[in-house]
Design brief:
- Helices cover 38% and strands 22% of the residues.
- The chain is α/β, with parallel strands linked by helices.
- It has two domains: 272 residues, Aldehyde Dehydrogenase, Chain A, domain 1, CATH 3.40.605.10; 186 residues, Aldehyde Dehydrogenase, Chain A, domain 2, CATH 3.40.309.10.
- Strands 14-15-16-13-12-18-19 form a seven-stranded mixed beta sheet, with helices on both faces. It has a six-stranded mixed beta sheet with strand order 9-8-7-10-11-21, sandwiched between helices. It has a three-stranded antiparallel beta sheet with strand order 5-6-22, with no helix packed on it.
- The longest helix is centred in the first third of the chain and has 21 residues.
- Belongs to the aldehyde dehydrogenase family.
- It comes from Aspergillus wentii DTO 134E9.
- It catalyses: succinate semialdehyde + NAD(+) + H2O = succinate + NADH + 2 H(+); succinate semialdehyde + NADP(+) + H2O = succinate + NADPH + 2 H(+).
- InterPro entries: Ald_DH/histidinol_DH, Ald_DH_C, Ald_DH_N, Aldehyde_DH_dom, Aldehyde_DH_Superfamily.
Length: 484
């Protein structure tokens, strides 16, 4: 595989404006999940490497925080423009190391760029307030950057998740230290190359790579007094560990954790639109997204018609290598993901579900898109996030039943409703216990929209005007008017 610009493929750490190996000189292989063959190697970084990155970010913060919002805006806009100019190569890297189908990968690049564009615009709109004080003094409320931010990004959106974090951080005046996922470090590194070309100063963005040492680096970020905020996207289990490890320093946290999205289709829904929405939600990234529909509740009167139309569409899918332009769905990220998907399918069948389509591993990291009917609440797929292209259809009778079953879950990231009844749409969306609800669409993420969940799905929000607030501290300044 070749890139239009081969210099975007770098297997190094980026610390204080320099690409470098780990102090230990240890490396790990980055593999193509479509073939399980190595692409290149990257540094197996140690806490000592991370400390160098933290110190570089701390040094850069002293000057970066003094730049104007307009200066930061222009740099982010240049960064955005370079991502768009190199979108083909970035998409190739995503497909290569993540396995994502080419069309999905290209969509992710545009998604990633949109955060840089949005926060380029927000950088000049960090407004404070003047508020009345009870004793007649003047009160100013100003917003200042938190400081050095640690970021741990996931493999399923190697471009989108890094820009969704560094965009608002840089716009706010923070500097960052990024630990990219060991499965997908090359996309993140390519983005940093473009940030450097855009003119973002040395030390403002630092990035370290690791596979086996990831827990050690996470602990280091949590225990570093220099890092004042930690942003993590990943599993609920790991998020809770990071929260505990950060507790003694009262570090600001953004935790975007696991989901188990309900997808409710009422009998008055536009069925064709609901099918299209489910496909968009469930099969993007081979079902490996935290907002993928995991529990699909279909009202009994339309259950059979919906199932028939869904199967007809899914039969046209082409499973293959992500870099094959004909593929509509690529592999899963690795063998463990395949094992879990097959386990969920087999468990469902043993407990009464019927495979209507797919259901088999295709060798390597490939699995067929799978549709199960007659799912019930005793199955693992009900309580665990499947993270695979497996659709389980549940029947329901009443609105009250659908709400109760949808909310019977310890996580609450996203949910979906399909209905043409506006009163029902409002009523159900307000009563669903999730941070996000999509009505009559399977697409929920956008740069302008706050992204995040409730319950065990995490803390804080990413995206939109709310996302930049996570990287700002409020300062109150009280001035006695008589002294003016």
């Amino acid at each position: 595989m070749t890139l239009h610009d081969p210099t975007l493929l770098i297997g190094k750490n980026y610390i204080d404006g320099k690409w470098q190996s780990s102090l230990s000189n240890a490396t790990f292989d980055v593999t193509d999940p479509s073939t399980n063959k190595p692409i290149t190697s990257c540094p197996e970084s140690t806490p000592q490497d991370l400390e160098l990155a933290i110190q570089a970010a701390a040094k850069a913060f002293t000057t970066w925080k003094q730049t104007t919002g307009r200066e930061r805006s222009r740099l982010l806009r240049r960064f955005h423009d370079l991502v768009i100019a190199n979108k083909e190569d970035i998409a190739t890297l995503i497909s290569w190391e993540n396995g994502k189908a080419s069309a999905d990968a290209k969509g992710e690049v545009l998604f990633a760029a949109s955060f840089l564009e949005w926060y380029a615009e927000e950088a000049v709109r960090i407004y404070g307030d003047v508020v009345p004080h009870s004793n007649g003094s003047r009160v100013q409320v100003i917003k200042q950057p938190v400081g050095v931010c640690g970021m741990i990004t996931p493999w399923n959106y190697p471009a989108g998740m890094i820009t969704r974090k560094i965009g608002p951080a840089l716009a706010a005046g923070c500097t960052v230290v990024v630990k990219s996922d060991g499965n997908t470090p090359l996309t993140a590194n390519a983005l940093v190359v473009l940030a450097e070309r855009a003119g973002i100063p040395n030390g403002v963005i630092n990035i370290v790579t690791a596979l086996e040492n990831t827990p050690l680096l996470g602990l280091k970020m949590c225990q570093s007094p220099i890092i004042r905020k930690l942003s993590f996207t990943g599993s609920t289990r790991v998020g809770k560990i990071l929260a505990e490890q950060s507790g003694s320093l009262l570090k600001k946290l953004s935790l975007e954790l696991g989901g188990n999205a309900s997808f409710i289709i009422f009998d008055d829904a536009d069925i064709d639109n609901a099918v299209a929405g489910l496909i968009a939600s469930k099969f993007k990234g081979s079902g490996q997204t935290c907002v993928s529909a995991n529990r699909v509740y279909v009202q009994s009167d339309i259950y059979d018609v919906f199932l028939e139309k869904l199967v007809r569409k899914v039969r046209d899918f082409k499973v293959g290598p992500g870099l094959d332009a004909q593929s509509t769905m690529g592999p899963l990220i690795g063998p463990n993901a395949v094992v879990k998907a097959v386990e969920h399918i087999q468990d469902a069948v043993q407990k009464g579900a019927e495979i209507v389509h797919g259901g088999q591993s295709r060798g390597g990291n490939f699995i067929e898109p799978t549709i199960l009917k007659n799912a019930n609440d005793t199955m693992k797929i009900t309580t665990e996030e499947t993270f695979a292209p497996v659709v389980a259809l549940f029947r329901f009778s009443t609105e009250e039943e659908a709400l109760k079953r949808a909310n019977d879950c310890d996580v609450g990231l996203a949910s979906y409703i399909f209905t043409t009844n506006i009163d029902r749409a409002n009523r159900v969306s307000e009563n669903l216990e999730t941070g996000m609800v999509a009505i009559n669409t399977g697409v929920i993420s956008d740069a302008a929209a706050p992204f995040g969940g409730v319950k065990h799905s995490g803390l804080g929000r990413e995206g939109g005007v709310y996302g930049i607030q996570e990287y700002l501290d409020l300062k109150t300044i009280v001035t006695v008017k008589a002294n003016l």
